[in-house]
Every structure is written in structure tokens, then in C-alpha cells.
Amino acid sequence: MKGKVYLVGAGPGDPELLTLKALRLLRSADAVLHDDLVAPEILKLIPPTAQIHNVGKRCGKRKTVQGEINRLMAELAMSGLSVVRLKGGDPMIFGRAGEEIDSLRRNNIPFEIVPGVTSAMAAAAAIQIPLTHRRGSSALVFITAHQASEKGASEADASDWSKFVASGATLVIYMPGQNYADIAKRLTLAGLDADTPCAVVSRATTKNQRSHRTTVLDLPRAPQLASPTLLVVGEVVRLSNPAALVAEFIVPELLPLQRPTEIRAQ
After folding, report:
1. For this structure, is 195 an active site residue?
2. In Å, what is the CA distance from 93 to each residue of 22, 63, 115, 185?
3. Active site residue: 14, 30, 35, 157, which one?
4. What's the pLDDT band for 56 if we cut at 50, 70, 90?
5. Are both 163 and 141 inside the same structural domain?
6. Model pTM?
7. Of these residues, 90, 157, 175, 182, which one is catalytic?
């Protein structure tokens, strides 16, 4: 008799941001295949009787290729086990869930998707950025810079983002890498003003959370914060709470603290 696979979002790191359903499934799992980005505190919730497989892939360095993950999920489920495929954030946002869903369907394995708090929402909440605002941004776009950082910025690359910039949407860039000069160039070529505010948030919701607010112009000089990081770009970043930013990463002469008059002026 076949088991079932659950594609579960582990959230951004804080165990208290797990959904009740994710917690229940973890505690009753027969096997768990987890990514590297899942917090250790969440892995401690897995029962000691469960099989645990670290199938993480980070920064282009693969511990386990996707085909092996698909094969392992299928084998465990076909042996009758309840399998949790545990992914950081939300499984459907830059988590390669689509490939795993295709594999499960091809093998006629029952599966269910359990959403999680994606890191974009968590990062914004951590430094009190409203990702949408009726006077600042009425749209929100999630994009990844992983390929852009590998290829380098170019006018061809910029065309991919120009339609987002033209819309006035808040941009949340996943996997920005460490070469912020390429990201800044790509945003500028796409038509974004150099003084547009942006924020880098590292390890959101964890005890190691760090953040830095800057502008597109000064983004190349941003500190190299620990992965995983997110880059939030748009006028709504002006509304972030300075007290929520880490003081040692703020450069006063480049980035003065937010004044109430700046908020009222928008």
C-alpha cells in the first residue's frame, strides 16, 4: 500500500511561524527529507523514530541532485511511509516544488501541499516594511537573481525586469548572491531610479537576523551579510523602522535615520 508525500513549508526559521498542520505532520512523519535552510529548532520537532534525510542544495553546491530527491521520495512513499518533504519558506516559491510534483504524479504517488510563511513576508515583517501601500506600491513581485548573478548584468538581462520596474511594484529579490554591483546595475538598466531605497535582510526571524538599508546607488557597498538573504526594493522601504535595523550595519552619512516628515511627504 502506498504512503503519501507532503510538501511542507517550514517557514523562514522561527519555529513559532510553523503552521499547525506542518507541526502535526512533522510529529507524525515516518520519513523527512529536508533542505539545508530548515532551522535546527524545527528539525528537533521530528520524532526520533523517523528517517531523516538532509537533501539540501545551497549556493550552487549540491549535496543531493534533484533526481535523487525525486527517487528517494518515491521509494519511501511506495514502501507505505508518510513522507514529509520539508522546505524552507513556502514550498511553491523558488523551492523546485514543480519538479517534485511532476515526479510524484508520474509515479502515481498521493501528495499534498502545505504552504508556509515565505521569507519575503518574514523579512518585511522583521523590519516593519509594508510590502504594499496605497500611496506607494499597489503590486508585489517575487523574482530571483540567482541566474543574473551568474551571468552578470547586461541590457538583455535588464529587459526581464523593466516591466516590473515600470509597474511601480515592490520587488523582493530572492537569492541575490553577494555581487550587489550586478544587481544594482541590472535594476538601473531596467529603469529604476538610483535613489530608490532597498533593504538587505539576512536570516530573517532567527536569532542571527541582520539587516541593512541603503539605495540602489549605494547597494554595491552593502555589507556581505550571511546567507540566506533577501533584497527588498521599492519606495515602501522608506517606511521601515530604523530601530528594527542592526545599528552596526547602518552608515549614518549615507543613510540617515527615517524622519517622520519623510513618511508624511509620500
Report:
1. no
2. 17, 21, 10, 25
3. 35
4. confident
5. yes
6. 0.82
7. 175
